[in-house]
Structures are given as structure tokens and as C-alpha cells.
Amino acid sequence: MRPADRVHMVITDRLGGGSLAPYDGRNLGGAVGDDPATVRQNRDKTASEFGLDPARVVYMRQVHSADVAYVTEPFGAEPPALDAVFTAEPGLGLCVLVADCAPVLVADAGAGLVGAAHSGRAGTTLGVVPALVRAMAGRGADPARMTALIGPAACGLCYEVSAELRDQVSAGLPASRSTTRRGTPALDLRAGITAQLTAEGVTEIRHDDRCTIETPELYSYRRDHTTGRFAGYVWLDA
Fold it and tell me: Kind of pairing, strands 113-119 and 102-108?
């Protein structure tokens, strides 16, 4: 088996789960008001469909930070506050939950390392994705060998913000500066994260260009307010 064949990256959607309105479908978020038993069923169903052991999936308590942890097993019922994880453990699924923020999945197949980051406006500004790349490099990964997937997020034509906030973010990350279709200030997280990955030496950058706000089969907090979470998963085969 080629090293690259061991790496799996998947983006879910809201179809096929058991959650009722307003979470309709495959809600994987455990802190959004949905029935906890239904969320657990959705998570177990999703992991099983991917060939993962539901008890071997790592979930974070995402807080819009730049904190990264190396993991060898799930955290359990009380995950720590952080926004990126990585591992070398085969069969250990890493899950990042989103509903407008970008899920970013990273792998160096040659080094046998995979990672996942939750990169919204705050996390992108703080540099959670560069922090993940550097942490992986600290354990033997090479950014030049890495593959990154930036998943669906609120796009730069829809993610409207105040002029002050756009100026604040783009001062440190110029690529994130954008304008909506209506000509109002906006942020393009995907462009900003791409620039960050490029600056770290990652050249193989893939995009799922769907906008969460414009795509009904994806959850979007900005569009619906009370809503669920879809996910990005990454893992290594044995």
C-alpha cells in the first residue's frame, strides 16, 4: 500500500441522520441544543459508515483558539478546550465540527501523521492552522509533503462583517480581505487559510469550495442561527 492510500479525508453533510428540526438530519454537534442521544446515534452511525470504531473518534471542545494537541486516544466525556489535534495512531478518527467556520484537514502520509483544525475568524486570525502544521513538523512531518483540505465555509462573497473587523483581520492576513456581492465589507477565510498554509511551505492544498450559507445540505449558523454541525474527519488506515 502506498503511504498516501492510508490517508482518508471526508466532509459530511446534514443528510441521513436522525435529528429533528431545526437540526434536521445528521447533526454531529453536541453543544447546540439537540437531543444528546440522537447526536450520539448520528456520530456512531457516521463513524461506522466510514469504517471507524465509534469509540475511536476524537472530538474537541472547540473554543476558537490556536491550541493544538497530539492525541493517541479520544478525550472522553470532558474534552479539553482546543481547536486542533493530530495523531500517528492508525484507526483513530479526528473530527472537527463546523457550521460556517472552515474545517482544515492536513496529512503527511510519508511521516504517518494526520491532523484536523477548526479555523473560524478568530482561530484563523490567531493562526490555528499554521500552529497545527508546525506541531506536526515538530514530530517529523514535512510541510512540503503535506496535503491539506480546506472544507466548506462561509465564502468571501457572503461572510459580511463590519469595516472595522475586516480591517483588523486583514491587517495581519491581507488575503482574507473581501467584499460581498452587495459591496459591503467581508472576510474570505478560505483565501486567508490558503495563504497561511502556503507561507508554511504546504503546496498541495485542496478546496471544497461550497459556501455553507448558500448550500442547504450543509449547516450554517449565519443562515439559520439555531442549527447543527457537520464535520471534517481525517484518519490513517493501519
Answer: antiparallel
Per DSSP, helices labelled H in the chain are: 36-49, 121-126, 128-137, 163-172, 189-199, 221-224
* pLDDT value of position 1: 57
CB atoms within 10 A of CB 97: 23
Burial (Cβ within 10 Å: 0-12, 13-18, ≥19) of residue 17: buried
- Closest Cα partner for 128 from 182, 189, 218? 189
Length of the chain: 238
C-alpha cell belonging to residue 95: 473530527
Q: Which single residue is written with the C-alpha cell 489535534? A: 85
Cell of 179: 467584499
pLDDT surpasses 60 at 106 = yes
Domain boundaries, given as residue ranges, for the chain = 3-150+208-236
As a CATH number, domain 3-150+208-236 is 3.60.140.10
What pTM does this model have? 0.95
Q: What is the DSSP letter of 106?
A: E
Average pLDDT over all residues of the chain: 96
- On the question of pLDDT at 194 being above 70, the answer is yes
